[in-house]
Amino acid sequence: MDAKLRDRLKTLSTATITKQLQNRGFGNIGMAGVKPLVWGPERMVGEAFTLRFIPMREDLVGKKIMARKDHPQRRAIDDCPKGAVLVVDARGVTHVGTAGDILIARLFTRGAAGFVSDGGMRDAEEVKLVGLPVFVAGPAAPPGANAHAAVDLQRPIGCGGVAVVPGDIIVGDGDGVVVIPKALAKEVARDGTEQERLERFIKMKVLQGCPVVGLYPPGDKARAEYQAWVKAGEPEG
Amino acid sequence: MDAKLRDRLKTLSTATITKQLQNRGFGNIGMAGVKPLVWGPERMVGEAFTLRFIPMREDLVGKKIMARKDHPQRRAIDDCPKGAVLVVDARGVTHVGTAGDILIARLFTRGAAGFVSDGGMRDAEEVKLVGLPVFVAGPAAPPGANAHAAVDLQRPIGCGGVAVVPGDIIVGDGDGVVVIPKALAKEVARDGTEQERLERFIKMKVLQGCPVVGLYPPGDKARAEYQAWVKAGEPEG
Amino acid sequence: MDAKLRDRLKTLSTATITKQLQNRGFGNIGMAGVKPLVWGPERMVGEAFTLRFIPMREDLVGKKIMARKDHPQRRAIDDCPKGAVLVVDARGVTHVGTAGDILIARLFTRGAAGFVSDGGMRDAEEVKLVGLPVFVAGPAAPPGANAHAAVDLQRPIGCGGVAVVPGDIIVGDGDGVVVIPKALAKEVARDGTEQERLERFIKMKVLQGCPVVGLYPPGDKARAEYQAWVKAGEPEG
Amino acid sequence: MDAKLRDRLKTLSTATITKQLQNRGFGNIGMAGVKPLVWGPERMVGEAFTLRFIPMREDLVGKKIMARKDHPQRRAIDDCPKGAVLVVDARGVTHVGTAGDILIARLFTRGAAGFVSDGGMRDAEEVKLVGLPVFVAGPAAPPGANAHAAVDLQRPIGCGGVAVVPGDIIVGDGDGVVVIPKALAKEVARDGTEQERLERFIKMKVLQGCPVVGLYPPGDKARAEYQAWVKAGEPEG
Amino acid sequence: MDAKLRDRLKTLSTATITKQLQNRGFGNIGMAGVKPLVWGPERMVGEAFTLRFIPMREDLVGKKIMARKDHPQRRAIDDCPKGAVLVVDARGVTHVGTAGDILIARLFTRGAAGFVSDGGMRDAEEVKLVGLPVFVAGPAAPPGANAHAAVDLQRPIGCGGVAVVPGDIIVGDGDGVVVIPKALAKEVARDGTEQERLERFIKMKVLQGCPVVGLYPPGDKARAEYQAWVKAGEPEG
Amino acid sequence: MDAKLRDRLKTLSTATITKQLQNRGFGNIGMAGVKPLVWGPERMVGEAFTLRFIPMREDLVGKKIMARKDHPQRRAIDDCPKGAVLVVDARGVTHVGTAGDILIARLFTRGAAGFVSDGGMRDAEEVKLVGLPVFVAGPAAPPGANAHAAVDLQRPIGCGGVAVVPGDIIVGDGDGVVVIPKALAKEVARDGTEQERLERFIKMKVLQGCPVVGLYPPGDKARAEYQAWVKAGEPEG
Questions:
Q1: Which partners does chain A have (≥3 C-beta pairs < 8 Å)?
Q2: Tens-of-pLDDT digits for all 237 residues of chain A?
Q3: Model's pTM, two decimal places?
Q4: Which site among D56, D61, D75, D106 would you substitute to test the C interface, given the most C Cβ atoms closer than 10 Å to its Cβ?
Q5: By CA distance, what is A153's nearest residue in B?
Q6: Beta strands in chain E (DSSP E)
Q7: Cis peptide before F41 (omega within 30 of 0)
């Protein structure tokens, strides 16, 4: 992933990004039920590397299967590229884990950008200390194999009710996780930066006592005032 | 699929099959929320041919994509083999369709054994007249592309909360749909037939006034009586 | 249960009964998610005999446990008194059964008044032919032991989100199942009969073209007219 | 509502209507969880007349309030215009009723086109006999006031997860209920008729053994064939 | 709102208030799924100013509609009176926002007492810094217009499953948000103060080792002891 | 409960315990929807003492019933043995409390080991200060009697979707609460200690850059290296 694009996206809130995507007709790009367990000081930004679970069946799990060199979950952890975000389709099943502190530590040492799942996280207290941004449904002690069987790497998946295609850009912050279709990442970054400048101006005016009607979204007068403010070097007050 | 096996399985209720699978340690093989829309006079039995949806995203659906020769949903309909059951992973989304009367008619003309989805069915009244067994969450008018994008053919999926691997045996009747892992189909068929004979005996005794304690499951005395009944040619009363 | 009371209650709809209970301050007495599988020609009326399930755990189920003479589910079937309704607390788990055709047949031969569960029913097609009124969440093939362990007979339970105390009166019809606290059964029966007569009058007026405002509930004028109609022998039109 | 428009819409399935609305960018117009209780022989078509419930609070319900001449629910029943469909926002609460046989009978005598609610229906067996099309979540005995307080007439509402603005066109059939924004009704009717003709052709071809790829949606060749078929007077085979 | 009443209510926990309302027969006045995002050091207390959303439809949202001077959401923010709590009916939809940091900042500068919604909050990290108490379902990045259309100001609404009538008193603390019907606010405040004194006494006794049976609720002996303690000036131990 | 066993179990994470139970065929022993409100510095470990609620009915709650000496909830609080964990079956109803700060303080003074409920907690801010570990669905202001009636002490229950038999061992930490069937507690403690040592080794290797395939679960080579590491006194790096 382009380093400049990554850096630019790190400056944009997920709220801004979803607004930019709404402007382009994308209405289902914010994950439901996927919350930050640990992140910061920067936003999580990276390309999606995907893993898919299906419901557990007794012949699809077990020690022998877990020990196979091509077991998709273990492969996902060892193969997730530097800078990528591992995104797991856990079908919204929250009462078992989809990883634990050992797997998260491995992802961290590989230089992954983060871990996202609409399922649970084991060893949550330990995971918070690893250093990798993690967004999940919440902590959950039981092993994933109680409810899941891993079946696919790098296929399009659903996570938190939204589509994730390998290579999409995943961004996470305090509001949760959003997905930018790969082809739109550059323009979202560009226009999002402008949007955030405009919103900085609007918030400044609001704190000075202006009503939001006519200001947010800006009418002609507010827009003119904004352009003057930009020209003037964006003074603070 | 072996014709004898198919015929044998058609004589077994899904209740019997799930009991046989429970005996073998399989506890999650009956689909939740998947109900018969139309079936009969025989049970639906066939090998699973699978199709997978992910959540709709605006760049993953649309007329151009639907018109592609490799569109997974259309391919699924044209490629589903004679005697197979098309099983669709619709992530339990019930308020849009996952097929309609045209696609079901095409499956029927190809000799498919049935259609199963944990999503909705469009044109439900028309579909009831086609002649193909259909098990879905219920009728739903809106087109599937309002909520789904088709992504995969013949991969393991979840449907109604249970795993379905291509080639598994799918059986449907008034109690819904169950999945027999391929490797177990023969023994389930064999032991299920014996189970149903025993239960016929037990029900006969119950209707004659016997208590279920000691009879169902049978104690030593009941089992001896059963064996005598079998020897005697299973007389009716 | 008093035969006269039973006969009187059979003439009252569950809608009437819940209205009478609302008048007495009872607002949570209609089961949610419990639907008629088979009933009629009369309403189901009987005293509650209760059975309670908890979530399955591997050491609480199995063939040995099922074969015990004191297994609560089997005991419930063999001990449910003539005229009683067996009510099962299945914690709203709908994808497995809570009984099947053999157990329902046994209840029927014992003269039970019906079977109620907020879980599923196995062998639903067979069960419809037995002759016993059955109200459940719906058909479901898998055996109950996949999700439940039976633990208690004749304790207060929840079913469909409402309390059921052994001895309460259970009534079922096309609108579902309602519970009358034992102490209120007589007055509900008495006042319900009067309510249904009034509603017969109101419906007659409505079909003649009267507005519902002033009539339902009846104002002074409508009430006077009603009393005259009663005096006149409740003429049809 | 224009009689010609009504008649034209009665010939179109809700599946067709939702497809036409999808073509115009409307993706959330089919109600979830609202099922036919009784309808036919024609489709239900009429302008929306709306009623809104909020959660019950003890000071917002009761006999005095129900008896008021301006009680919104009673007003809705007495004021719903001939040919209109009364649509009720019951917040998806299914375990209590939102009307019963008396209110449905009154709507019927007034010439209403139907009743739609995402809540329950009391006296469901009686309601099926009245003659009015009714689409609800299902039967439910308890009075609505156990869970609802009526607050508004003729305001925009949500029902089954979709917006309903007074005056929108409501259509119901075996697939459920859909909403046509008023401004789009004419063009949906016009283009829907053409769509159904095309789909009749496609289904005919499918029953003759054609694959759906290239036919549905039609490619150039199929479209030419279709136009010839139209020119030829739409012959049956 | 009366300043004394406000100050008195700030001393009462929401647990106490719901108990007082239970004593008066009100059983559904605590919002479900509405959690504190930020509050303190004092409790949030204010009169309800209400805003209502319905499900999004493409013709009911968009830039033009958002820019209208009478757009209900923007109006709600600019018109919410000093000291009032803006309460939003978001139908429990949690995966999109119902406001963000700019709107919350505007409410704050206007002197509003707080913001309550059963939907999500955008820019949650920023919102925590504004200074306004906020109770919502949780953070959510996507703009509200992905799922909602604003339709009404100052009508009775549902929020978190409870009724909110404009002018009701809204109180929020660590246990969440409760609604006091306007007419009851004074007596709840008065009796709640007495209740909290009694519970202070009870907790003191409990920490000294007293059993709760006979003490909570207090029997005759405990009540006498309590009255003596009050007379003695409520000594600490 | 044996003091050594308790001490040993305090060293094991709930993730480890659920893995040990999975190894023994137990797949449903981690509570869903039950989160830590307050715990630490040690894990919560104790034998289950159980309390069961059913849905509220107006004749089963109220001041008189609450004041009875045998009221199950009050009895549970006064009778819960030193070192035990009070576990409450609240049927997953989260919007009302199942205890508050007074009851939790009483449990604390009695030396209970903790409180677990799949319902809500009143006075959550106060409860955090008492000193007792508490695991619940979350804070909730309204009194439990708005939704629950207490009916049983020391019967098997469901909590968070798992079975709890009186005397089972309950363990809680940041990942939530798990249940160890009594008969398995010793062997789980023993083998869990060995598992945690192995995982310490694995995590050390992972942080040194080893892939997880071949290491977790360990292949022959990794297992040999582990045994050497144990022999060497488990050196840190």
A1: B, E, F
A2: 899 999 999 999 999 999 999 999 999 999 999 999 999 999 999 999 999 999 999 999 999 999 999 999 999 999 999 999 999 999 999 999 999 999 999 999 999 999 999 999 999 999 999 999 999 999 999 999 999 999 999 999 999 999 999 999 999 999 999 999 999 999 999 999 999 999 999 999 999 999 999 999 999 999 999 999 999 999 986
A3: 0.98
A4: D106
A5: B155
A6: 35-38, 44-55, 84-89, 114-117, 120-121, 134-136, 138-139, 148-153, 157-159, 162-164, 169-173, 176-180
A7: yes
Say whether C163 and F183 touch across the interface (CB within 8 A). Answer: no
- Give the list of residues 6+ apart from residue B70 with CB closer than 8 angstroms, or none: none
- pLDDT profile of chain B (237 residues), mean per 10: 96 98 97 97 98 98 92 96 98 98 98 98 98 98 98 98 98 98 98 98 97 96 97 90
Cβ neighbours of residue A79 under 8 Å, at least 6 residues apart? Answer: A49, A153
Q: Please, what's the b/e burial string for B189-203 (b: 16 or more CB within 10 A of its CB; e: otherwise)?
A: bebbeebbebbebbb
Q: How far is D27 from chain E (nearest CA, A)?
A: 8
Token code pair at residue E175? 């246990």
Task: Choose among C32, C213, C217: nearest Cβ to D78.
Answer: C213
Per-residue pLDDT tens over the stretch E176-192? 999 999 999 999 999 99
Q: How far apart are CA A66 and CA A145, in angstroms?
A: 9
The reply to whether residue D30 touches residue B66, judged by beta carbons under 8 angstroms, is no
Contact C141 B175 (CB under 8 A): yes
Look at D60 and E161 and tell me if their CB atoms are within 8 Å: no
Contact B212 C142 (CB under 8 A): no
HEC string for B151-171: EEECCCEEECCEEECCCCEEE
Could you tell me which residues come within 8 angstroms of residue D129 by beta carbon, excluding any fewer than 6 positions away? none
Looking at chain E, the number of H-run helices and the number of E-run strands are 8, 12
Report the relative pairing of strands E84-89 and B120-121 from DSSP bridges: unpaired
Chain C residue whose CA is closest to F182: C59
Flag if E151 and D156 touch (Cβ within 8 Å). yes
Q: In this complex, which of E71, E74, E141 lies closest to A178 when CB atoms are compared? A: E141
CA angle D6, D10, D15 (to 5 degrees): 125
Q: CA E154, CA C117: separation in Å to the nearest integer?
A: 43
Distance CA C178, CA C192 (A): 14
Whether F and E touch, i.e. at least 3 CB pairs below 8 A, reads as: yes
For residue C139, the chain B residues in CB contact (below 8 A) are 35, 174-176
